[in-house]
């Protein structure tokens, strides 16, 4: 077989071309990470070989000592990184090094801004992997042979990082992979032994296989790491930097993790876990189908990535490993699903994460950073995981009428402490409710007429504006014996409302209320006097058992047809506009004005109008009449 018959050039997938360009540009100031990425890939390849050899021991017949070596040629400005791991066939190489097999890559690349700092963050989260070699090299070659295949079944992949790569068949005596970097002229520092040695020591200390440096000037290869899996070492021996490096290797992340928790559990089930909270949400956090979960090892042998059985879906942002001493080595996803003991492990790991978050919550700034990234996901927990409700509800943070900013930074304890302090000051009764308002966004919430009376009574209201909040609100129910109250509900009781007075007011204004109800019969359930308004003429409230308008809009948007439900209209009878309505004797004008009052109440809470065109024509008519009145009086 002639070599040229098997040589070919292929274009990169469009996404790869884009990624290469963006990466070289945005990661330039962190270019040395290519070493971490390549050593990390080599380590993964060794893990995979050891795993496959569990069921096919022949794969190791060329040698069972798994190792990584780095070789430097200063004169040629060349680095070679070799592993004797699983290796790749020609088809593997095409699939792995010519395409990006991750869903959503195109949308992800679309988010790039061209601002190097922001993009570096995004790219870092995406995991730059093998392609980072092109930050420092103007030519990269990969020579590989799959474990178990014949010496003449090797393959060489070469690219200059432009639009295409070249493939040819080669003979390779050793199984595994060598990545060869021809460094750019101004990247000669990476062919400097001392520089590379320092970097590799930093990046490979936690790697469970020996990493050696072959330096042509030195007599002996030098081993650069201790080659013990990080999590097997005692906590007290591990430096923070080592934990951070291990995280970057594990998560293919570029930023430091926010926090971590490392534990060994002994007893019926023995296992070690090392769990991390990332600093940034991945681009596919909202894709509930995206791969998630922990990396599973059994007795230090890598078994699988993305073992999702160990944590609930609402903790999908957690990265880490679990190393079990007693799961069978041949454990599969199916077996994990059926394993009864696993439920207990999952419960324990879940509590571990929640405890880690509780600890983090003691540091306000860092917890805020966590909450901004993952708060809405954690809220799913309160809805789905009733076992841990008590831990979860304490981890929630809210925006409120009494926060200085839009930030969700109030805990329920903050809320109650403030309310109780106020009660003490006035030597009054403790507030037995926790008030909240649902709205589409923060501005709408703050401007909501429903808050007026609460605001004048200086009662704090939590502002719930995340997409998930209508569901969260349903799940909240009570905290520390105080019940949650939606301030837009018809039965809202305010602490200082005097029933007798209200009754008298209802009686006094009954004719007006009846008349408005009659005019708006098709659109409202009933009309009443409002206790929650100060400055606004009217608001709509939701029946006590009806769906909140936010939930209703969302369900309707997702195509569900819901039974028709009409809101309750509340009027502020002291308001000049309502008095003006009361004084209107022309029936047509009365109906028109009443319609506008209702439309405005709906608009103020962010609800859509059933018939916006009719509203506009009513308004136009009114403005013209106003014009006429002004003309007439002139
Ligand atoms: P990632 O490591 O995040 O999957 P990379 O771009 O670094 O992404 O690598 C792409 C794929 O190429 C890997 O998933 C792996 O299958 C393959 N690969 C990379 N380096 C090696 C190696 N040294 N040995 C075997 N396979 C490798």
Q: How many strands in all?
A: 22
Please tell me the total number of domains: 3
Mean pLDDT: 89
The CATH topology of the largest domain is Four Helix Bundle (Hemerythrin (Met), subunit A)
Q: Shape from CA axes?
A: elongated
What is the helix fraction of residues, given as a range? 40-55%
Protein structure class: alpha+beta
Work out the strand percent: 15-25%
Describe the sheet with the most strands.
9 strands, mixed
CATH class of the largest domain: Mainly Alpha
Architecture per CATH nomenclature, i.e. the level-2 architecture of the largest domain = Up-down Bundle
| Backbone CA Rg | 33 Å
Task: Report what the structure shows.
There is one protein chain. With 634 residues, the protein is an alpha+beta fold. The chain folds into 3 domains: 3-228, Heat Shock Protein 90 (2-Layer Sandwich), CATH 3.30.565; 231-393, Ribosomal Protein S5, domain 2 (2-Layer Sandwich); 398-633, Heat shock protein 90, C-terminal domain (Four Helix Bundle (Hemerythrin (Met), subunit A)), CATH 1.20.120. The chain has 21 helices and 22 strands. Helix 2 (33-55) packs across helix 7 (193-204), helix 11 (364-384) crosses helix 16 and helix 20 (587-604) packs across helix 21. The termini are far apart. Residues 1-5 have low confidence and may be disordered. The chain binds adenosine-5'-diphosphate. Adenosine-5'-diphosphate binds next to helix 2 and helix 3. Residues 37, 41-42, 45, 83, 85-88, 96-97, 127, 129-131, 177, 252 line the site of adenosine-5'-diphosphate.
């Amino acid at each position: 077989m002639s070599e040229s018959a098997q040589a070919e050039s292929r274009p990169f997938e469009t996404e790869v071309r884009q990624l290469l360009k963006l990466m070289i540009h945005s990661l330039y100031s962190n270019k040395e990470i290519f070493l971490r990425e390549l050593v990390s890939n080599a380590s993964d390849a060794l893990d995979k070989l050891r795993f496959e050899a569990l069921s096919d021991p022949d794969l190791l017949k060329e040698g069972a000592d798994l190792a990584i070596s780095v070789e430097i040629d200063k004169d040629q400005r060349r680095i070679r990184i070799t592993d004797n791991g699983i290796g790749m066939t020609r088809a593997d190489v095409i699939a792995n090094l010519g395409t990006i097999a991750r869903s959503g890559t195109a949308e992800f690349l679309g988010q790039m801004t061209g601002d190097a700092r922001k993009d570096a963050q995004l790219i870092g989260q995406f995991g730059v992997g093998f392609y980072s070699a092109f930050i420092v090299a103007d030519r990269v070659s990969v020579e590989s042979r799959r474990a178990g295949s014949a010496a003449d079944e090797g393959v060489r992949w070469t690219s200059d990082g432009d639009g295409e790569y070249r493939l040819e068949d080669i003979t390779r005596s050793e199984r595994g992979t060598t990545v060869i970097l021809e460094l750019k002229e101004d990247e000669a520092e990476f062919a400097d032994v001392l520089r590379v040695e320092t970097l590799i020591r930093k990046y490979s200390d936690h790697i469970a296989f020996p990493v050696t440096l072959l330096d042509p000037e030195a007599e002996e290869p030098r081993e650069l790491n201790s080659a013990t899996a990080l999590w097997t070492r005692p906590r007290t021996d591990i430096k923070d930097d080592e934990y951070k490096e291990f995280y970057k290797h594990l998560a293919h992340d570029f930023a430091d993790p926010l926090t971590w928790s490392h534990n060994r559990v002994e007893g019926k089930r023995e296992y070690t876990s090392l769990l991390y909270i990332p600093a940034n949400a991945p681009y596919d956090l909202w894709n509930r189908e995206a791969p998630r979960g922990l990396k599973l090892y059994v007795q230090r042998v890598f078994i699988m990535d993305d073992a999702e059985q160990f944590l609930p879906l609402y903790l999908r942002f957690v990265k880490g490993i679990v190393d079990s001493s007693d799961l069978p080595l041949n454990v599969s996803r199916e077996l994990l699903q059926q394993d009864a003991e696993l439920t207990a492990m999952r419960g324990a790991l879940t509590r571990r994460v929640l405890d880690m978050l509780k600890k983090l919550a003691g540091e306000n700034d860092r917890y805020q950073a966590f909450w901004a990234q993952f708060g809405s996901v954690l809220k799913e927990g309160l809805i789905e995981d009733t076992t841990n409700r008590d831990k979860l509800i304490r981890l929630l943070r809210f925006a409120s009428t009494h926060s200085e900013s839009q930030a969700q930074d109030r805990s329920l304890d903050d809320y109650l402490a403030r309310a109780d302090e106020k009660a003490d000051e006035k030597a009054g009764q403790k507030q037995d409710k926790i008030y909240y308002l649902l709205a589409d966004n923060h501005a709408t919430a703050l401007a909501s007429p429903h808050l007026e009376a609460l605001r004048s009574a200086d009662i704090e209201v939590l502002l719930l504006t995340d997409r998930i909040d209508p569901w969260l609100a349903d799940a909240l129910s009570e905290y520390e014996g105080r019940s949650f109250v939606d301030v837009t509900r018809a039965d809202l009781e305010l602490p200082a409302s005097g029933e007798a007075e209200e009754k008298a007011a209802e009686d006094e204004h009954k004719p007006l209320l009846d008349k408005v109800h009659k005019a708006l019969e098709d659109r409202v359930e009933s009309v009443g006097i409002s206790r929650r308004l100060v400055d606004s003429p009217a608001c709509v409230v939701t029946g006590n058992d009806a769906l909140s308008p936010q939930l209703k809009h969302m369900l309707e948007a997702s195509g569900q047809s819901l039974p028709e439900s009409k809101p309750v209209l509340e009027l502020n009878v002291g308001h000049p506009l309502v008095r003006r309505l009361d004084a209107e004797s022309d029936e047509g004008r009365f109906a028109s004005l009443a319609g506008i009052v209702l439309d405005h109440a709906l608009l103020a809470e962010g609800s859509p109008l059933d018939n916006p065109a009719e509203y506009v024509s009513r308004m136009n008519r009114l403005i013209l009449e106003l014009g006429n009145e002004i003309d007439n009086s002139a």
